[in-house]
Design goal:
heterodimer; A: 294 residues; mainly alpha; Cytochrome Bc1 Complex, Chain D, domain 2; three-stranded mixed sheet; two-stranded antiparallel ribbon; 41% helix; B: mainly alpha; 46% helix; globular; metal ion binding (chain B); signal (chain B); electron transfer activity (chain B); Monoheme cytochrome SoxX (Sulfur oxidation) (chain B); iron (chain B)
Chain lengths: 294, 204
């Protein structure tokens, strides 16, 4: 095996000058395949009946009372109450980047770099960090069941919803001038290109070009401001499938599931890198607050 | 992940031989280390799926556009791994093909391992006109056989394209359904029939 590898490498070396700059050539196919049918894809902006129906429903729901508001209220109480083994509140101990206890505008300016943690963190990761470092909760406990299911909603989900609601109608402004943030953004850009797994999928397979759909589901192109906004707006969101409140962290995991990838660890660098890439691409877009998802 | 020894050998040798063309950027190198730390096995989706096979590594390092010479050799290598049904028949039953084309299950951490895996075809392609819920990641396949006929060469092309799309387009977005063991040869020939059989609704 080893010998074969060396031999193959030597052979490849011999041909390597040809590697230089040629453009890829089209592979041989039966000639008739040139007469390919014109794709009769629907125009980019066309929405199917189900999508329109859902949007009407969502508008009505929000008018009558967005279910996310319940979690926002719970999160506000948790934020202001002395809790955990250290019996301190997050309001008096947690800095989301704009000063201890400041929630107004914090969500749309994350992910950002936190010198005390030495890391770039998204909102959820930062809240979990504060719960561990300031309030004394055990990280393992917070990581054990980090997303809602059935009637269970993790505390950090309600807290994220509260913090996010306090950035409603404000523009995304991930601090890209910070070299730490820029670096994580660039790493995130590499993550979205990484093809692997049984189906060779990357994030970009579905989310790297305009006007694509899986079945009838429109796929935002997260490399553009408009597409990134579609991917970022509405999170955290109350999801009609399962009737649960879910965060953007959760959504990243579900993407990887469908990508046939393994599971990203909760509150990991990889998830922060993706959220940095997407949210920064949406910089300048107005955040509409916690939403309702299909 | 299943990868033929031959496949990874050729690709790895190419990477070793051409450091300038295939070297990782600092950010990509960081991303690879980070992902290795951050992914964990869940259900059948084992942590090692994050690692690239040789072909994925070359596509990832060249922005899905390897140089022509590498492309040809990799495509030939992928093609060499295509296995055909023992009886040589490449056209099966289009009705069975339609069922396989409809199913998108398989390989995720919420799928039961070992269940028959779907072809995921409608997720990305327009195929038979009756199904209006189709994706647009791939080209429309409506009237595929009507436009091209169903000669032996065409059957072989469609079969091997589904078995391993990378044997024609090395960094194609399309999965390698036969190569990774998602679809068996007899399932692939049902899909060939869906696209090429004159009786298939695709060609009406």
């Amino acid at each position: 095996m080893r010998q074969a590898l060396v031999a193959a490498a030597a052979f490849a070396l011999a041909i390597s000058p040809a590697i230089a700059q040629d453009k890829p050539a089209a592979a041989a196919k039966p000639a008739a395949s040139k007469k390919a049918a014109k794709p009769s894809a629907a125009p980019v902006e066309e929405k199917d009946a189900a999508t329109l129906e859902f949007e009407k429903f969502r508008a009505k729901m929000i008018e009558e009372g967005n279910p996310a508001e319940l979690f926002e209220a719970q999160g506000e109480e948790m934020w202001k109450t002395k809790r955990g083994p250290n019996n301190v509140s997050l309001a008096e101990s947690c800095d989301l980047g704009l000063g201890v206890g400041v929630v107004k505008g914090a969500y749309v300016q994350m992910p950002r770099y936190f010198a005390d943690a030495g890391k770039v963190m998204d909102a959820e990761r930062r809240i979990v960090w504060c719960m561990v470092e300031k309030q004394g909760f055990k990280e393992a406990d917070l990581h054990a069941k980090p997303f809602a299911s059935g009637t269970y909603t993790p505390e950090q989900t309600s807290l994220v919803t509260y913090v996010a609601a306090n950035s409603k109608d404000m523009k995304f402004a991930v601090p890209m001038k910070d070299p730490h943030v820029k670096d994580v953004y660039e790493v995130g850009k590499e993550v979205v290109k990484h093809r692997a797994g049984p189906y060779d999928f990357s994030c970009n397979t579905c989310h790297g070009a305009d006007g694509k759909r899986i079945r009838m589901q429109q796929l935002p192109n997260i490399s553009t401001q408009k597409g990134a906004a579609m991917a970022v707006l509405g999170w955290p969101g109350y999801r009609m499938t399962g009737n649960v409140m879910l965060t953007h962290q959760w959504r990243m995991g579900d993407c990887f599931r469908q990508q046939r990838f393994p599971e990203p660890k909760y509150a990991s660098d990889t998830v922060t890198a993706l959220l940095t890439y997407m949210t920064a691409n949406a910089n300048g877009v107005t955040y509409t607050g916690p939403g309702i998802k299909r | 992940m299943k990868t033929t020894a031959r496949n990874s050998l050729v690709a790895m040798a190419m990477i070793a031989a051409a450091p300038a063309a295939f070297s990782d950027s600092d950010h990509r190198a960081k991303a690879l280390v980070m992902m290795k730390q951050d992914f964990v096995t869940k259900g059948q989706a084992t942590a090692d799926r994050i690692f690239e096979d040789g072909l994925q590594a070359i596509c990832n390092r060249t922005g899905n556009q390897p140089p022509a010479d590498i492309t040809k050799r990799l495509e030939a290598d992928q093609m060499a791994g295509v296995k055909y049904p023992a009886d040589g028949k490449l056209m099966g039953d289009w009705k069975e093909g339609e069922k396989i084309a409809q199913s998108g299950r398989g390989f995720t951490w919420t799928d039961e391992p070992g269940l028959p895996v779907g072809g995921n075809c409608y997720n990305c392609h327009q195929i038979a006109p009756k199904e209006t819920s189709f994706g647009t990641v791939g080209p429309s396949l409506f009237h595929f056989g009507k436009l091209r006929g169903n000669t032996a060469d065409m059957q072989k092309y469609v079969y091997s394209k589904i078995y391993n799309a990378k044997s024609y387009n090395v960094c194609s977005e399309m999965p390698r359904f036969g190569h990774v063991g998602a679809l068996r040869p007899e399932q692939i020939r049902h899909l060939v029939a869906l696209l090429l059989d004159p009786e298939s609704p695709v060609n009406k």
